Amino acid sequence: MESAYKFTEYRYRFLKETKNIFSANSRTTAKLPERVPRDGGLSKTEQNFLESIRNDAVRRKETIKDIILKCSATSFDVYIDEIKRLSWENSKLREELRRKDHMMDKKGKMEKTQERIISQKNEQIRKISQEVEKTRSELKKVKTGVNKEIDQPNKSKKGRSLTNRRKREEILEIPVLPENTSNDQQAKEARDIFFYDIPKYWSEDDVRTNLMKIGTVYRLQIRGQYKYKTVKAKISLNENFEKTFSDGHFGICISKNFIRWYDAKLGQHIRLHETTATNFQNGVH
């Protein structure tokens, strides 16, 4: 019903406009001195179309009314086809616009993702640069400190030897057990022994604990060296270690460390001589 109504409306408008055109042409024609050419600027093909239509209308003896109504119907069909074509082109244009909008949105999202990735990379680079700069600054400080130490005036050998002697003479004395020898036979038999080559990383407790493995310790005197410690201990050796000491062995193994020991009554020169002789006998060079 909707299409019939549209066709009816279109036919009404077509007839109305046609009447107005003919009426206008009839009025203007009387005023014009020259007559408009009958062909109206039509091409040869269009003129052939009109001639064919005229012949058909004469042969069928169709009236003006029939001719105009057929023209109206044909014009409406052309109009409908043109509307369909325009609608199809419009839908294609809309689809193309949607596709381009989708691509633009996708491109925008990709650009945002790339910007976020670049921002993260820049942040990582900034942190790494800060770490590198911090490390460089620390190295520069260390280098400056080393240069300052090198630039300081060198002390004389005499001054260094005096300083080292003072350092060696700093002895830490640690009483372990009370030295009450009146009623303690073991305390009476205790002797002073020097222990050399004790690891520097041994604490005072470590020294006391490890020496108590070989006997009863009454007193300790600890002196730090460069890599080792020297300990003078008043100690009552256990039976096995007493025999080892009496047999003249110049060292023992304590906690997997070889430690030299000597009677404190011997002088330093005698201790060095015994060490050299023992090393020669054992093939130690």
Could you describe the 3D structure shown?
With 285 residues, the protein is of the alpha+beta class. It folds into 2 domains: 1-23 and 39-128; 170-281, 2-Layer Sandwich (Alpha-Beta Plaits). The chain is built from 8 helices and 6 strands; from the N terminus they run ααααβαβαββαββα. It has a 6-stranded antiparallel sheet. Helix 1 (2-31) crosses helix 3. The longest helix has 88 residues, at 64-151. The protein is rod-shaped, with a radius of gyration of 61 Å. Mean pLDDT is 79; it is low at 277-285.
Question: What does the secondary structure layout of this molecule look like, with pairings?
Answer:
Blueprint: H1 2-31, H2 44-60, H3 64-151, H4 157-168, E1 171-175, H5 185-189, E2 191-199, H6 204-211, E3 215-224, E4 228-237, H7 239-246, E5 251-254, E6 257-263, H8 268-281
Antiparallel strand pairs: 1-3, 2-4, 2-6, 3-4, 5-6
Helix pairs in contact: 1-3
How is this structure best summarized?
With 285 residues, the chain is an alpha+beta fold. Helix content is 64%, strand content 16%.
Unreliable parts: 277-285
Radius of gyration: 61 Å
- Taken from the alpha-carbon principal axes, the silhouette is rod-shaped
Order of helices and strands: HHHHEHEHEEHEEH
Mean pLDDT: 79
What's the number of extended β-strand segments? 6
Strand content: 15-25%
Beginning-to-end CA distance, first to last residue: 126 Å
Q: Determine the structural class based on helices, strands and strand pairing.
A: alpha+beta
Strand line-up across the major sheet = 1-3-4-2-6-5
Number of domains: 2
Taking the sheet with the most strands, its summary is: 6 strands, antiparallel
How many DSSP helices?
A: 8
- Percent helix, as a range, is 55-70%
